[in-house]
Amino acid sequence: MVVIGAGFAGLQCARRLAGEPVDVLVLDRENHHLFTPLLYQVASALLNPSDIANPVRRIFQNAGNVRVRMAEVEGVDFAGRRVALADGTSIPYDRVVVACGSRTNWFGMDGMASAALPLKNLPDALALRNHVLACFEAAAFRDPTERAALMRFVVVGGGPTGVEYAGALSELIRRPVRRDFPDLDIDRARVVLIEAGPSLLTGFPAELGDYARRELERRGVEVLLETPVVGGDEREVRLGSEARIETRTIVWTAGVRPARLVDAMAVPKTDGGRIEVDERLRIVGVADAFAAGDAAAARSRGGTPLPMMAPPAMQAGRHAADNVLRDLRGEPLRGFAYRDKGTMATIGRSAAVAAIGRVRLKGFPGWILWLALHLFYLIGFRNRLAVLLEWTWDYLRWDRPIRLITRARGDPAAPRVG
Amino acid sequence: MVVIGAGFAGLQCARRLAGEPVDVLVLDRENHHLFTPLLYQVASALLNPSDIANPVRRIFQNAGNVRVRMAEVEGVDFAGRRVALADGTSIPYDRVVVACGSRTNWFGMDGMASAALPLKNLPDALALRNHVLACFEAAAFRDPTERAALMRFVVVGGGPTGVEYAGALSELIRRPVRRDFPDLDIDRARVVLIEAGPSLLTGFPAELGDYARRELERRGVEVLLETPVVGGDEREVRLGSEARIETRTIVWTAGVRPARLVDAMAVPKTDGGRIEVDERLRIVGVADAFAAGDAAAARSRGGTPLPMMAPPAMQAGRHAADNVLRDLRGEPLRGFAYRDKGTMATIGRSAAVAAIGRVRLKGFPGWILWLALHLFYLIGFRNRLAVLLEWTWDYLRWDRPIRLITRARGDPAAPRVG
User: Fold this and answer.
1) Hey, is B322 helix, strand or coil?
2) Per DSSP, which regions of A131-228 are E strands?
């Protein structure tokens, strides 16, 4: 059988199948699994890419029945039971699990798509780190108006990624960047977090969203609520109220949509473009095909589609694997019931929010829980150790040490604001 | 005064001037100093870029008289005492130290320049790591002839960089890659090291070059001596003897030449293109201008130009700084005398060579000394700690964990062999 994607859903699916009497082939366009919940820490100069990325082959080194192939999937022929690759070849399957994930949603704003910086994958995070540092490099040698625009950072989207990155960026600026740039008046740097809805962290209990806003403001982040963004380009971001903010940096965390591969599939989909699956996670109207994670609209006990986040993806990936095994054994498949273990987001040093059942945690206890759970869910002892050391270093030294502006080979130019 | 370049020469120059009664501006096109002696360990999936790169601003955080600017220098107007930047502006100076380093020397082979992978800077190292891993990813799904070419790696140049990378690549393949790719017969992978001269490590005592060859061969590297490379492209490397080796990977460590900036300078130069300096490290025929490092042909006590390596660069950089200070105080300048502390190169796990005065070390003692000195010369406590931990991990686990194929943002394609 074939698993398309080695994100949270695909990886958990393949792990559950490891050691079972079934041949599994995992396809992913990258050679590594990415622990996206910590991506914003790569973008804010705290972690190395390798701390949150694991080679997929390494993860399955000891699983004799799981093979791995780095390949771009171009389409799935469900009738002919073949997966088509970008290199023109195709792979037959008896069963397939589609777990190809999601990409940044620009909501049709083309200007924004070319001007703003998303935060969805590793290249995004490195480009964002490079860009922010390059803004400060450039700011020291520009006229005051341009300098102010270079030191004004707009983050669009008040979900966990936007909240976490805005808090981390503020910490990066207020200590390490201040020490690096004595030639700049760092107090003039601004981080603006823009959310269309009435509160941050929609989906969390209201008191935690309010706490996140207060904590971010206390740390120097300006929070604009009920402020829809209607456009943007290299010079400014345009707000629904006809206001504009001049900036050289728009960080886009406003939403995701299913991967391009899903667009090409002729299967039933939701309005949001996610694959419709039945309660057993089978793709509706297709035989021997399951889907899980952001690409699929899994519903728990027939409710609304579960959010496009890691925890439902992991559970659905495992459930799809279990149903594949039941199917192989001739047992009846089981319905998927999502077990909500809660949601959490960090705001910065010593501050996070967590809602676990009826328990609400914030501030330092929430932060410790956040740290512990993220370490636990990271894959591999080495990565846990590396991240723990980086976090300890940051906590003791108020330092985000990976302040490198890196170039790709063959790129002779400095980053675009240089 | 202005220091052009934050490599070994420029950095040591500026560090010597820190705290002295002189205003220093350090210019570099990168925002970080790169510890190039460990670059091959980034290329062989052992170290992170941040382990060997330090933000220059961070290094001079506590030096009130040293300012840093990330900028590309386009030329120096020695008569008008101005440094011209690529952005069209220029910076006046009273004194300048040219320490802009070197670039890969392709010896006029254009086909080679577009086909081979150099190992001179951080983007080179990451591109090489990506490429080698992508070769194995591709090899598993190609016909036997192409598979053999994909698993054949040719390293050109038997100096320290070529020897060290060939040894590290062999270690990467023989354990971690073997574990990752059960679908490949890794015993068929070949690493070939090609040197035009009669022995490896020219400049070292002959017995150490011989030892390096034997050790590399013992570790599965094929060493071809007295084998000049006359050309190469994406398909093969051509040898002087009309022989060819079919390969998808040519790693080019055959030589360096001064940076492009030096080419544009109308000052006396050696046949190799290095700036002629007098024994006080002043550029010949130019007032108030010094040069140090690979860009300049410093001679110790009037001998032949010192090699283009880190130790002479560091000493010349410090000496140029001392002479600047003497000049400012109205004291006579002093001649530069290079103090040769020895040379060393590592071959792999538990094996290195070192020649320090009359002492020759090889094997395990040489390796321990190599490790200790490289840790000592690394800049910053954090980097030393990180590298020590990575080395310990590798030693205990036979693991080179950073086996990531990373893309640059906006690059939709897999690496070129994908």
Assistant:
1) helix
2) 152-156, 190-194, 221-224
Q: State how far residue A402 is from chain B, nearest Cα, in angstroms.
A: 6
Q: What is the dihedral of CA B332, B336, B339, B345, to 10 degrees?
A: 140
Task: For residue A404, give the nearest of B31, B89, B393 by CB distance.
Answer: B31
Residues lower than pLDDT 70 in chain A? 409-418
Please judge whether A405 and B124 are an interchain contact, meaning their C-beta atoms are less than 8 angstroms apart: no
The residue of chain A with its CA nearest to that of B411 is: A123
- Which chain B residue shows the shortest CA-CA distance from A140? B69
Task: Characterize the bridge pairing of strands A82-85 and A343-348.
Answer: unpaired
d(CA B316, CA B340) in angstroms, rounded, equals 12
Catalytic pick among A74, A164, A236, A279: A164
pTM (two decimals): 0.96
Convert the pLDDT of each residue in A325-345 to its tens digit. 999 999 999 999 999 999 999
pLDDT single digits (tens) B206-243: 999 999 999 999 999 999 999 999 999 999 999 987 89
Asked if A58 lies within 8 A of B403 by C-beta distance, the reply is yes
State how far residue A54 is from chain B, nearest Cα, in angstroms. Answer: 8
**C-alpha to C-alpha distances, B234 to B81, B245, B250, nearest whole angstrom:** 45, 11, 8
**Adjacency order of strands within the sheet including B221-224:** B117-118, B249-252, B152-156, B190-194, B221-224
In chain B, which residues fall in CATH 3.50.50.60?
2-29+71-104+256-328
- d(C-alpha A275, C-alpha B219), whole Å: 51
Question: Is A404's CB within 8 Å of B70's CB?
Answer: no
Q: Quickly name the fold that domain B2-29+71-104+256-328 has.
A: FAD/NAD(P)-binding domain (3.50.50)
A351 pairs with which residues across the strands? A348
Q: Which of B402, B186, B393 is nearest to A32 (CA)?
A: B402
- Two tokens, residue A242: 């006809």
> Can you name the residues that pair with B224 across neighbouring β-strands?
B194
Mean pLDDT of B366-386: 94
The CATH fold of domain B110-254 = FAD/NAD(P)-binding domain (3.50.50)
Q: At the top level of CATH, which class does the domain A2-104+256-328 belong to?
A: alpha beta
- Indicate the SS3 state at residue A351: strand
Question: Token pair 């397939």 is at which residue?
Answer: A96
Q: Which of A55, A64, A124 sits opposite B409 (nearest CB)?
A: A124
Q: Which residue of chain A comes nearest to B121, CA vs CA?
A: A409
Mean per-residue pLDDT of chain B? 95
User: Active-site residue A164, yes or no?
Assistant: yes
With contacts defined as CB-CB under 8 Å, which chain A residues touch B48? Answer: 48-50
Q: What is the DSSP letter of B295?
A: G
Which one of B49, B61, B406 has the shortest CB-CB distance to A122? Answer: B406
Question: Distance (Å, rounded) from C-alpha B390 to C-alpha B349?
Answer: 13
The rounded Cα B166 to chain-centroid distance in angstroms is 15
- Set B20, B164, B242, B276: catalytic member: B164
Instruction: Give the helix, strand, coil percentages of chain B, each rounded to 5.
Output: 35, 25, 40
> What is the complex's ipTM, to 2 decimals?
0.95
For A402, name the nearest residue in chain B, comparing CA atoms only.
B50
> Residues of CATH 3.50.50.100 domain(s) within chain A?
110-254
Tell me which residue has tokens 């399955």.
Answer: A60
* Radius of gyration of chain B, Cα coordinates, nearest whole angstrom: 22
- A306: nearest Cα among A323, A286, A291: A291
Dist CA A352 CA A364 (whole Å): 7
Sign of the dihedral through C-alpha A417, B123, B408, A37: negative
Query: What is d(CA A236, CA B369) in angstroms, rounded to the nearest whole number?
Result: 55
